[in-house]
Amino acid sequence: MAQKPQKKAAKAAKGAEASKILIVLASVVLVIAGAKASAEFVVPVLLAFFIATVSFPITHWLREHRVPRALAVFITVLVDFAFLAGVVLLGIMLMGELQSKWESKYYDLTKERVTQLADNTSEFMDQWGMVTIGDDTEDSAVSLDVEPLSTREVDPVVLEPHSESDMAVTEGIEAVTGSAVATRPAIDLLTEELLKYLSVNKVVQLGTDFLGKLVSFLGTTFIVMLLTVFMLSEARMFGRRFNAICEARGPNIQRMLSATKDIQRYLGIKTLVSLLTGFLAGVLCWSVGLEFPLLWGILAFALNYIPAIGSVIAGIPPVLLSLLVTGDWKHAVIVAGGYLVINGLLGNFLEPTLLGRRFGLSTLVVVISVIFWGWIWGPIGMLLAVPLTMLVKVAMDNSADFRWIAVAISKEDRNTVGISDE
Q: Alpha helices, DSSP H only, in 178-292?
């Protein structure tokens, strides 16, 4: 009899555990859906946080040299705006030049390379005794002795209605042109007027869309700059506020404060490494004779903020351009090898040396976090994938129920774990 209450208690405990898991999963789904739905609000805040975190050392240096806080914040924001505006304008100018080059040179060169590749493929197939579709078509055309269309005499087309639909078309033309014969000038006039109408509407629509996007961009820029000003102004007060929260018997968020400092250190070091990566990539492209080396350097600088995959994506356009311009695989391999050396040295040696093991996230978790945060908040989410995942890890580490998640996403410490890969 004593075993029945124990079995009931065990079943009740299992049911409560299952209910708890379902509630947690439902809560996670709701949080993710809410985060994705609030992207328009969250993305400017995250972007302002990123700019303020990266540029806070400037404000701190100015404050140490007894510059008033308001003036120090103003100078910092001015430097941020000048740098970002310069990079964006330079990138737009270079993209315009690249588009002009494409229309005047690269487009025809691409067609030539594609034709050359098709010819080489055809020769390769002929060498191995393969029959192409084009050869069968040519043989069949020759066996049928079909006269080319260009050598035939084509009689002028005369509209002779034979059915009710043809009669309807003729009557419509008569109603527009005022005659029973559809002359070519009348049709051309109608076509010209129709195209003119469509072109005007298209221009108006494009202009409206451009103005709407411009207003949205300027509004977002203003909000980001305003938030950056307030974040820089109150940055030194956050530590004192955390201590006041602890004294008021609030939650202990010292670990979160420590994680925030690590995030600031991470973004600062990432900015320096990205600048060095962009400089070396530009020098590499210039040394091998590629056009637009400054554009490829800016691209490498911007994409290097995205962990794991950003530097790989930045190397694809220069390699394709090298292959397109020179047509030599060896030249493209040299460019790709240069990018691998740069990213390998800076990403695998210099950056981990400067950061240490503070973040301790496994490579798989970093890649998944880039995809996940990018899906939720776009490029800004990919940019801040590691800091956001680090905050989630700290929050899980402070919970007794979810501490195992923090352990699961951490990088393995071989000094403490006695399991070998062998």
A: 184-233, 238-247, 254-287
